[in-house]
Amino acid sequence: MITIELLSVKNLKVEIKTENGVINPVSDVSFTLEKGKTIGIVGESGSGKSVTALSMLKLFPKNISEIVDGSITFNNQDLTSLNNKQMQKIRGNRISMIFQEPMTSLNPVYTIGNQLLEPLMTHQKLTKKEAINKAISLLKDVHIPEPEKRLNQYPHELSGGMRQRVMIAMALGCEPELLIADEPTTALDVTVQAQILELIKELSETKGMSVILITHDLGVVSEMCDNVIVMYAGQIVEAGSVYTIFENPKHPYTSSLIKCIPTLETEEEELFVIEGNVPSLLDMSKGCRFQNRCPFKTKECENEPVELIEVAKDHYSRCIHVNELLLEGVI
Predict the structure, then answer these.
(1) Contacts of 238 (CB under 8 A, 6+ apart)
(2) Cβ–Cβ under 8 Å, residues 14 and 200
(3) Residue 41 exposed, middle or buried by CB count within 10 Å (0-12, 13-18, 19+)
(4) What is the pTM for the complete model shown?
(5) Nearest-angstrom CA–CA distance, 160 and 123
């Protein structure tokens, strides 16, 4: 079977200036995404998931942030070399993004119709009448009842689930090749979460669209994704297929994350917890970034930079003790 590479991120490093100094929320991040596939990016808050996604669209203010190393190649075009005017032709048109909180992403003073029509008329050069017809069709695609009525409503008149569906409709309006969904079910109840995720999966399959799904929920990843990237403190610590990662994790952090998932077989009264906190980006250690929380830490972990290495076919881990831990059956 022939696979076509849509996106390639290589050695990405992002620098942000803060009041307390310069930080690198993303360092040495590399991965590829094939056309029609879904990749999950998982990790705790502050692991660099959203920064990685925002970097692809160059949505950070230029005066405080920049990509200082690496490349982002989309359909054989290096996005890091494009200026803002060139990026505007890609944002929302070829690459779309669903943000975490739909209420803050939708403009409260404009109707749903106004916000849906603008990108259709800008990118696809549709007349207003054509854009209205397509907007109604998009709302139907995301299973919103009475779409004609919704066009004249404001965001506050819709429920959280409905607003998120509107965001998906806006993201899909120009039929992008890549959809980035950043925690698309945050603040939604469980039933609506399932509906939104099923909708994204359905639209991805019917339209042949690639998806980057950013989440902290491994359960969502197992249901939605073909491959997964596990991030910690701005770096990828493990990457591989969903089946491989869940069945045979090869990094202590990934193994711990999986242990945190409650199951029906769990007999203990207390759930498994990863002790400690993600290190500050202002005070990052020279060695392994997970060392202060890792039960297998040795002196060697403290000073040596750890590379992401291939430990099995298409399976990568950033741990200098991975081979011995595997031999001992610890992870």
Answers:
(1) 229, 230, 245, 249, 250, 251, 253, 254, 316, 317, 318
(2) no
(3) buried
(4) 0.90
(5) 27
Selection from 229, 241, 217, 212 nearest residue 56 by Cα: 212
DSSP code of residue 287? S
| Per-residue pLDDT tens digits of the chain, which is 331 residues long | 556 889 999 999 999 998 888 999 999 999 999 999 999 999 988 899 999 999 999 998 888 889 999 999 999 999 999 998 999 889 988 999 988 776 678 899 999 999 999 989 988 889 999 999 999 999 988 888 999 999 999 999 998 888 988 988 888 888 899 999 998 877 677 887 888 888 888 888 888 899 999 998 888 899 899 999 999 999 999 999 999 999 989 999 999 998 887 776 656 667 778 888 888 888 887 889 999 899 888 888 888 789 999 998 999 999 988 877 654 555 6
Q: What span, in angstroms and rounded, lies between the C-alpha atoms of 305 and 287?
A: 5
* Cα–Cα dist 204/141, whole Å: 12
- Nearest CA to 306 among 241, 255, 235, 243? 235
